[in-house]
Design brief:
497 residues, alpha+beta, disordered N terminus, six-stranded mixed beta sheet, 44% helix
């Protein structure tokens, strides 16, 4: 027995040694037994990427429903998206969350099927059927194999045209949503977003607040649906293994009887802040600082927020904004992440974002950090934005960041869902689908001077927002921003809105 154990150990050691040698040889490591020939010259970069949207066929049904078909027959898959051009911007701030609740309730029972039965039918498709809402629009979307498209569209049409809106399901939805929001109100990131929305952006939260959700009734849900869910306020988008004639036929079959609206209400917008002010060298970038005090938070969300009244699709400002975002906070190697995370280790990540609207855009740059370093991060964010206004980016950085923009755009159009999502955004803003073909040339037309000019006209005069434990960082904040107006808000305030 002893000899047998010794043989097993000898074999194990031999196999282990053989595996190590093989890994060195195959892997070409620093200890490789095979000589490696270094590449003397790196390969030249490939050609500039290009994109051409597959043929888009548009038809309009007699009831006003616009039907859009993009055929991609490589795989037997189809994505169908029904866009309704009304979202949270179409609800009053006192009813915040109404559009989102209406969209969610479409799947909570329709055409006599209970919520459970409807969910089982959706699961049986082997794909997905989802509904949702954002600031600009609401939607229902599905993705299935092409042989199940008819069944899926039947279910979608039931949800959109014939929802039952059971009171029991609304009460359950409100209870779950309020619980989720209340958890979010204890997180610095959520409080930062709320302070930006209510303050600089002049908006209410898309998902609502505990107070507004409690006040939403089933009658309000039915009225929002009756007012806004109409074919002449909607676009049906097909992408995938489907011909234009098939798409139009299915649209007629499942949505042809949808009644045209008599009058779609025009919402009263929330009160907005004043527009941008001209900026010149020496002006103050930051208008004021808003602190949302969350005692014992441990971490703070810190950033800069600004409502911009320019930069819309199909304009030079829009393309400037795309490249600016890439330079400032659009990825791991962007400036904010370089300065805050990589150089100083103050955050796991820093980013920027543009939130597009019909007549303006919401800009933010944000990072999450320890409470003790919140003031330092606020100063770093301010410095990086000021650089955009005062300095032109150097050619190597412009080239690298524009490549990121181009690559991100092309990757977003790789799937049926990606193309459908892009088209949904364009139609929500009544922008022609040819915008996708113009995107890469538009981005490539932007130079460093365009970025600086756009920044000077648009970014100055915003607010710094910090959500965290004010007792930890307030003294440091006052030192770094002497004389700056600082407004302190209790975190509990947002639970009462």
């Amino acid at each position: 027995m002893r000899k047998f154990r010794e043989m097993r150990m000898h074999n194990y050691r031999f196999r282990h040694l053989f595996a190590m040698v093989a890994s060195f040889i195959i892997g070409g490591s620093a200890f490789s037994l095979i000589a490696q020939t270094p590449t003397e010259t790196p390969p030249a970069p490939g050609p500039k990427p290009s994109f051409s949207l597959p043929a888009v066929e548009e038809t309009v049904l007699p009831n006003g429903l616009r039907v859009v078909v993009v055929r991609k027959a490589e795989l037997p898959l189809v994505t169908a998206t029904l866009l309704v051009k009304s979202g949270a911007s179409s609800e009053a701030s006192k009813s915040a969350g109404l559009a989102t609740a209406t969209a969610a309730m479409l799947r909570k029972g329709a055409n006599g099927f209970s919520a459970t039965e409807f969910a089982e039918k959706a699961d049986y498709l082997g794909g997905y059927l989802v509904t949702g809402s954002n600031w600009n629009s609401s939607y229902a979307a599905l993705g299935v194999t092409s042989d199940k498209l008819g069944t899926a569209l039947s279910l979608m049409s039931d949800a959109v045209l014939r929802p039952d809106f059971p009171v029991k399901e609304l009460n359950l939805y409100k209870k779950q949503s309020i619980a989720d929001i209340e958890v979010g109100l204890k997180r610095p990131g959520t409080l930062f977003e709320l302070a930006a929305s209510y303050g600089e952006f002049g908006e209410h939260p898309v998902e609502g607040s505990p107070k507004t959700l409690k006040g939403i009734s089933i009658d309000q849900i039915r009225k929002f649906h009756a007012d806004h869910y109409h074919p002449d306020n909607a676009v049906l988008i097909f992408v995938g293994d489907i011909t234009p004639s098939e798409g139009t036929s299915m649209a007629r079959l499942f949505f042809g009887g949808w009644e045209k609206s008599k009058n779609i209400p025009i919402p009263e917008p929330d009160s907005l802040t004043e527009g941008p002010k001209p900026w010149s060298d020496g002006d103050t970038l930051v208008r004021k600082i808003t602190v949302v005090n969350l005692p014992n938070s441990g971490q703070s969300a810190v950033g800069y927020v600004k409502r911009i009244d320019s930069g819309f699709m199909d304009t030079q400002d829009y393309y400037s904004a795309q490249v600016l975002h890439s330079i400032l906070g659009g990825g791991y190697s962007a400036r904010l992440n370089q300065e805050i995370r990589l150089k100083r280790g103050l955050s796991y990540g820093a980013r920027s974002r543009f939130g597009w609207r019909d007549h303006y855009s919401n800009f933010l740059a944000v990072a999450q950090t320890k409470d003790v370093s919140a003031a330092e991060v606020a100063e770093l964010v301010k410095i990086e934005i000021e650089k955009l206004l005062t300095e032109e980016a150097l050619a190597p950085e412009m080239k690298a960041r524009m490549a990121v923009v181009e690559g991100g755009f092309l990757s977003s159009l790789y799937t049926n869902e990606g193309i459908a999502s892009q088209l949904r955004t364009l139609y929500a803003f009544s922008v022609g689908y040819d915008h996708l073909n113009k995107y890469l040339p538009g981005v490539n037309s932007i130079g460093a001077g365009n970025i600086k000019d756009f920044s000077r006209r648009s970014l100055a005069g915003g607010d710094i927002v910090i959500a965290g434990d004010a007792s930890v960082f307030m003294d440091d904040l006052k030192k770094r921003f002497p004389g700056m107006e600082i407004e302190v808000i209790d975190a509990k305030t947002f639970a009462k809105k």
